[in-house]
Amino acid sequence: MKKHRIKRSILLMIALVLVLAPLSLGTRLNSASAQQESQGPLSEARAGTSETSNGATSGPGRISKDFEDGTLQGWFGRGGNEILTVSPLAAHTGSYGMQVTGRTQGWNGPQLDVTPIMETGKTYHLSAWVKLPAGTPSSPVSMMVQRTTGGSNTYEAVKSVQAGDSGWVKLSGEYMLQQPIESLAVYFESFDHPTLDFYVDDVVIERAPDPVPIEIQKDIPSLKDVFAGQFKLGTALLVNEIKNPNGPDAELVRKHFNSLTAGNELKWDATEPAEGQFNFTAADNIVNFAMDNGIAMRGHTLVWHSQTPKWVFYDSNGNLASKELLYARMKKHIDAVVGRYKGKIYAWDVVNEVIEPGDKKPGGLRNSLWYQIAGEEFIEKAFIYAHEADPDAKLFINDYNTNDPVKRQFLHDLIKRLKAKGIPVDGVGHQTHIGIEYPRVQELDDMIEAFRDLGIDQQITELDMSVYTNDTDAYETFPTELQIKQANRYREIFDVFRKHADQISAVIFWGKDDLNTWLRTFPVVRNNWPLLFDERLQAKYAYWALVDPSKVPVETKRTKAPEASVKIDGQAEAAWNVAQAVPIQKGGKTAATFKTLWDAGHLYVWVDVDDATVNGNDSVEVYIDGNNGKTNAYEADDKKYTFRRSGANPHKPADYKAVKTERGYRIEASIPIDGAQTGKEIGFDVRIRDRSGSAEELASWNDIHHRQDTDTSGYGVLTLVEGPRTAKAARGSVVIDGNIDEIWNKAEQIVTDRWVSGSSGSTAKVRTLWDDHRLYVLAEVTDSLVTKRSANAWEQDSVEIFIDQNNARTDSYDGDDGQYRVNFDNETSVNPGSLGANLTSAAKRTPTGYIIEAAIDWVGTPPKAGNTIGFDVQVNNDENDDGVRDSVAIWNDTSDRTWQNLSNIGLLTLE
Q1: What pTM value is reported for the model?
Q2: Helix (H, G, I), strand (E, B) or coil at 551
Q3: Are 236 and 126 in contact (CB under 8 A)?
Q4: Per-residue model confidence as pLDDT tens digits over 474-486
Q5: Residue 189: CB partners within 8 Å, gap ≥ 6?
Q6: Which of 241, 423, 459, 567 could form a disulfide with 237 if both were Cys (CB 3.0 to 4.6 A apart)?
Q7: What is the DSSP string of 585-624?
C-alpha cells in the first residue's frame, strides 16, 4: 500500500471550485476531468533525464523539461515578479533544475505553455519532482493547469503534495482536456504559502494511451431489483454524465437506479443566477432523461445557505433585504422551478442544512442570511410555497450529520413544531456522508429510529463512504483491505436500512461511480473511492456486499485486550471498564457485544448476548489462534471454546459463568493462553449461536461466512496491550475564571508526561472536579514561549480535553464523545461542533506559562458517583513560534488518534 501525507488546509482555489461543483469534477470522456490523481506510479524512464538522454525533448503529445542545457526551456514567472533560475541546487537528476524564488502571492510560480501538444478529449499524464531549500518547513506545492476557453481562464488542480527539504517528492496526476481551448498552461504554486521558495525538475507531460472502451456489466443483478419492495435505490449525477444518452454512464444509471437526483442543476445559482433570469437547460436535460427512462426524479434543493446568489439577500441599495422582499423572491423562485417540473419530480429537498448547533441560535438553527432576515419563519414559507406550486410532490427537510444526537434532536423538534402548525413537511432527508469508520452502524440505526414517532417519510439522500479517517492521508491506489472493509461496512449499513424499510422510501447515493464524486476534491484533492462502482463503472466489493456477500473476502478486524485480572463470577468488576465493548452485528442490529482482558496465562472474555428467547443450547463460541497463523486448517495452537447459556460444564475446558440478563444472557470466561505479553497478537473470533427448536442462527464478529470450526484464516486479530491510566475526580463545583480556587486543592493531580510527538516541550499538571451538571478541568501549563502563529487551532499552544462520557471506548466518536480545545488566549474549538455550547473556559498567563480552567457540560443523562468515564488531556506546543506544532504531551493515549478514536484513552472515576 503506497500512501502519502498531505496538509490539512485546503487551497482557496479548490474551495471555490467545490462551492461551484460539489458533486464532481471528473467523469469519462463526456465530462470534466482535471483533478484526478494517477491510478499508479508513472514510469520514471523518460527523455530528458539521466535514465534516457540529456536535454529537453518534445514530440507528438509529449513535452519533457529537465533544464540540462542550462536554460529555463520555456518556463516563465506567472506574476512577473518571480525569479526563475537554472541551478545545480535544484537538480533531481543530472546537473541542473529550476529554482523558484521571489514569489509574493499564492498563485505565483513557474508556468509553461503546453498548448501545442493538447488535444480535446485526450488524457495526459503529468509528473514532476519538487523539493524545498534547506531549512524550509514542510509545505504544500501544487501542480495546476490554466485553461483558456472562450476567452475565460479556468484554474484546475492536478495534484498537491507535501514537499520538504530532506528529499525529492514526486507530483504525478492525470488531466483530461474536455473543452476546446485557445491556450493551456501548466504551472506550480503554493497557494497558502505565498513566499515559499522551491525547486522543480524533470517535468514530463505526455498523452496517455487511449483507454479501452468502457462497458458496464450487463449480466449482474440490478440494484433497483435487489431492493424492490423495500425502497427506491437512487443516485445523484451531473448533466454531463448523461450527455451521451447511449453511453456507458447513462446505461449504468438505467440498469441500477430508479431514483435520480440532480447534483447541481436544480440549485438556485444554476436555475436563477440573476434575478428573474432563469436557465433550465441543464435541469431539463436531466429531468427529461429521467422521464424518458422511467426513473423517478428527485429535486435538490430550493432553499439553502450555500449556492444561493448574493442578490437574493440584498436590496437595490446593498442592504439586507426586508423579510417581505426575501419572501417575494423565494415564492417567485419556487413557483418557477417547482411549477416547471410539476408532476415530473416526485420529491423536493425544500430546505437544506438549516440546523447548526455551533451557531448557538434558538432551536439550533443555522445563522444563515435566511435566518438573519426572517428567523425560523423562512422555513415555514418555503414549505408552504413549494406545496402550493406542486401539491402532489413530497416535501423534505434535508441535513447532514443527523446521526449526531444533539443535531438530530434539534431537527426532530423543528419538524415537530412545523407539523404542529400544519406546515406540509412530508419527510426528513439524512444526507449520510460517512467514513470508513465513522459513524458506528448503531448510530445510523438510532438516527432512523429517532424520527419514527413523527410519522413522516425518511430518505437517505446523499450516501457515500470516504475511505479515509482524516484529511491528511492519500492513497495512489485503493488498498485491497480497505475495499473489503468498505464492502462489509456497506453491508452492515444496508442491513439497518432494510430493518427500517417501513420508514425509508429511498436510499440515494451521492454519485454513481468513483470517478464522479465530490470526495476527490473535498476536503482535499486526492483519490477516493466512496461508491459501489469504480472509475470504469465496474462493480466493486461494495456492490457485491449488497447483492451477494459470499463474493466478498473476509475482513480482518482488529481489537485490543488491556491488561487486567478479574474473578469469573458474571459480575461487572471495575476492571472491565478499561475494555472496549465490541459489537457483533446481525441483520441490522447488535446481536452481542464482547470485551477482552488478559494477564499472564489467561485471556478473559465478557460477552453480552441480546436474545430474549431462552434455549439452553444457545451458546457463545470463542476461537483462538495462538500464533495468529491464519491457516486453512487447524494447527496445534488453534482452539475452540463453547460456553453455553445453560452454564453446562463450567470448568471444562475453561472456567466460565453464565448469567441471565434483562435482554438475554452474559458469559464471563477465563481462557488459558501461552506466552501472553504486551504487544502479542493472537487470532481471535467470537460467534453467537442462537437456537430455536431445530432452527439456528449464527452471528460472527469477524468471519461472517462462519467457517471458524476448520479454518482460522477468517479470524480477526486481538492485540494484548497495556491497561490505561486511571485517576479520580473529586466532587465539587467552581466558577470558571482562571483563578485556582481553594477547592482545587482536594483534587487529584495528573501530569501530561507521555509524548505523542517530540520528546520534550510543554506539559501540564491537571486536576478534575465534577458535579451533576458538568466536569471541571484545571490545567497548569509550563510553556516558555506561548504562540498561536499557525492558523490551525491544533498547532497553537493549547490544551485539549477528551471525554468519553459512557466509556464505550469506541474507534470513532459517539454522540456523548467530545474533543474540547482551549488555547492560551481562551480561543476555543470543539469536535463535534454541535457540542460547542457545552464548553465554558477561561485562560490566564502565568510566569511559567498559562492556566486553562474549563467546565464541560454532561451530554444527556449525567453520570453518577462511582461511574467511570473515558478521559484524556493533552498539551499542544509550538516551541519556536514558527507556526508548526513541535510537541504534543498527553496523559494517557499516545496513538495520535485521540481526536477521532477514543479506544485508548484513560479512565476517570467520579468520587
Answers
A1: 0.76
A2: helix
A3: no
A4: 888 899 999 999 9
A5: 78, 106, 107, 108, 109, 141, 142, 144
A6: 241
A7: EETTEEEEEEEEEEETTEEEEEEEEE--S--TT-EEEEEE
